[in-house]
Amino acid sequence: MNRPIIEAFWVAEYKDGTALAQLDPINRVENSFGKVFHKRVKRFWWIPITPGMTKVFPGTRFNPRLRRHAVDLNGSKGFVARRTSISLGMGGGSRVPVPAPKVKCYVLGIEGGPRREIYPDGTVIDKEWPTKAETQDILHS
Amino acid sequence: MAVADLAVQQFHGAGPTKDTVTTPRLSTMDDDAPGTANPLPIPAAGITFSFWMTLHLVITNIQDATVLNNHQFYSDGTCGWALGTLGDLFIAQKTGADMGVPVASYNQAGGTVGTTGYDMDDVTNGHDYYKTGEATYSAPVAVDSLNSGATMDVDLGDHTIAEGFKGIVIQAEVDTDATRGAQISETLTFQFDEV
Lengths: 141, 195
Description:
The complex is a heterodimer of chains A (141) and B (195).
Chain A (H helix, E strand, L loop, with lengths): L7 E7 L4 E3 L1 E2 L4 E2 L10 E8 L4 H4 L12 E4 L5 E13 L11 E9 L4 E4 L5 E4 L4 H4 L3 E2 L1
Antiparallel strand pairs in A: 1-2, 1-5, 3-4, 5-6, 6-11, 7-8, 8-9, 9-10
Chain B lengths: L4 E8 L4 E4 L27 E2 L3 E9 L6 E8 L12 E7 L16 E2 L3 E2 L19 E6 L9 E4 L8 E11 L11 E9 L1
Antiparallel strand pairs in B: 1-2, 1-4, 3-11, 4-11, 5-10, 5-12, 6-9, 6-11, 7-8
């Protein structure tokens, strides 16, 4: 089964200073997002995979164009997501190779509110963005 | 890694039968792998329809993923098929939050094999979930009106087990002045969020 190559992992930073990361390279374990205590979360992060982590976690890759990004929840419920696409060639007289699923972007934000899309080429797009005065402290790069 | 396994499956037959497809092909028969059999005839008059095609993005193994949602669909934005003046590749639509056909609302394609399929929008023989007169009806649109900047909301619901998302239904229409021969490949993209 083709799977997308992963270049970033999420971290839930709690209000008490602790954190739960998707990937724990020291213990070589992966945590499910279902383990996150949402009421305790202060920030969500997307952190780029490091070169060293690629040796611990198969299916990952270091991408030097990616930077870490976070969203401050300020009491709201946040989310992270990996947006993936599968493309098929439909047609015609010839058959084209089927591309593997690929990560289009990494998304984080506040449910029903602003969100940030982080693309593998380093592009960052903020969407559903209220006024600057309301949001200047929400996202950090 | 918390990465679910997914596939695009074509639903066909009465059951339906669900088959993974990598290069789906429209024809005038209800089959996931028609090959070159029963291609779309160019009509002497009127319009020829392909049998409509039902495609679902399916979670075949949830693995360690927690939730998948926000399923969108789009094309490469330009249909290179020479289907004639009124011909085009269409996709069924709905009004409302999302427009995909639920797995339970599958409707088998029909028509005259080798000649023409039923118009999915036809009030009598059309698709039971999408045809004219159905609740939250919206007319089909050209697939190439959908692109990465203008996607179709197929299924916005959360999926936490191995199951199918809502699907899309597409159909080609061929006019009398269509160009005979094999058409170039069109790219269909199924997008989703996962964590």
